[in-house]
Specification:
It contains five helices and no strands. With 174 residues, it is an all-alpha fold.
Length: 174
């Protein structure tokens, strides 16, 4: 089954699947990788923030019965408390903040992984993932709260390295 251009459609589909299709063409593969990762993760961060706000809106709305005699609401996850009592502007601000955090983390990880691959002569293995995960974890650990202690930063770096290494090793299994 040939198209009017003389190429088989299956060849075109396979070529597209084999290429790393990027959302952007910024002139350099490093920039393309960073921008692509940023946009994809920022979308995930926005969905996560909006779904969390929707969840707490529903929970707060369903919990408005008179069975609570103390008048105070207790959430199972106090650090994930939503902004359900606030305005739409607060929701948009929170969603933008979460999107930016997720996007920066993904862009940083992608850029470090690409840089390590180029610096090591094209080798992409668990070592690249560990270094990129550790540096990204440390950066996220420094930006998550106003007073990040060095223990929190080190713990975030170790967690990032462990998750990244596990993901890299599991991706070769499946």
């Amino acid at each position: 089954m040939e198209t009017s251009g003389g190429k088989k459609i299956t060849v075109e589909i396979k070529r597209y699947e084999n290429e790393k299709a990027s959302l952007f063409d910024l002139g350099h593969p490093l920039l393309n990788s960073i921008a692509d990762s940023f946009v994809k993760a920022a979308g995930v961060g926005a969905l996560q923030a909006v779904s969390r706000e929707a969840y707490f809106t529903v929970v707060d709305g369903a919990g408005s019965d008179s069975s609570d005699t103390t008048g105070s609401k207790k959430h199972r996850f106090p650090n994930l408390r939503g902004e359900s009592g606030k305005s739409v502007e607060a929701l948009v601000k929170n969603t933008g903040k979460e999107s930016l955090q997720w996007g920066l983390a993904a862009g940083l990880y992608s850029g470090i992984t690409y840089g390590m691959k180029e610096a090591r002569g094209g080798a992409h293995d668990w070592r690249n993932s560990v270094v990129a995960g550790a540096l990204t974890g440390a950066a996220v650990g420094m930006t998550t709260s106003d007073r990040s202690s060095h223990e929190q930063v080190v713990q975030s770096a170790l967690t990032g390295a462990a998750i990244s290494a596990a993901a890299n090793l599991l991706s070769s299994v499946f």
